[in-house]
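Supplementary Text 2. Reproducibility record for the structural model of the 238-residue chain.

All settings were left at their defaults, and a single model was retained for analysis rather than an ensemble. We include the record here because the model underlies the residue-level annotations in Supplementary Table 4.
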Amino acid sequence: LERCQKALTSFLEEKRSAFPRLYFIGDEDLLEILGQSSNPEVIQSHLKKLFAGIATVDFGEEAKEIVGMNSSLGERVALKNAVRVKDSAEPRPVEEWLSDLSAAMVETLAAELRPCCTPEVIDPTYVETYPSQLLCLSENIRFTQNVEKHIEKGQLAQFKGELAQQLSMMTSLTIDNALMNAKLKAMILDLIHNIAVLDTLLAKSGQVHSTSDWDWFRQLRYYFRPDGKNPCTVRMLE
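Retained model, structure tokens:
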């Protein structure tokens, strides 16, 4: 019995080493996933333990592939490339397709980041079109770009007025939809934080003359890199 327990522990550790998020679940849950990896209902019940933002996934024909992911509020994101969970009739190893699912999420959101960063106007259509994570990320990218532009021009105070107008516009939007309201609230909270950061810079206006000055350098800064492997770079103290 002890030998069987050691072999089982070693087997489960091998699976977790291949996909570290499996450390988030207990042995019983992992055994259920491994034993019923071709059962969509079993997969659905455990995914939220592995990926905090995913409540369910959408399966394609005959449950052979995952084609989309859904949040608890019903936000749906279609995957750029479907993730195979079966090869013909045989299920793929769980750790393999879970790794593919994690990579597909990143690839999908990265592909949508470019159009999300260049809206003509922030309105209900824009908020509805893109996932909440991208909406907030895009706002932080634009904030970083604008702060650095206004630092170079010596016009930080003018930028404060622009953000105040944006906040007024966003808080005046009327949306009768739980998902849309949640997305808009997340954007407003980020905007309020960014205004607080700007207030910190303005309070020390005599010390912030360039983008390398300490009070800006120590902030989380988001940069869009459309030609790079990773379209967004986050920097702090570098």
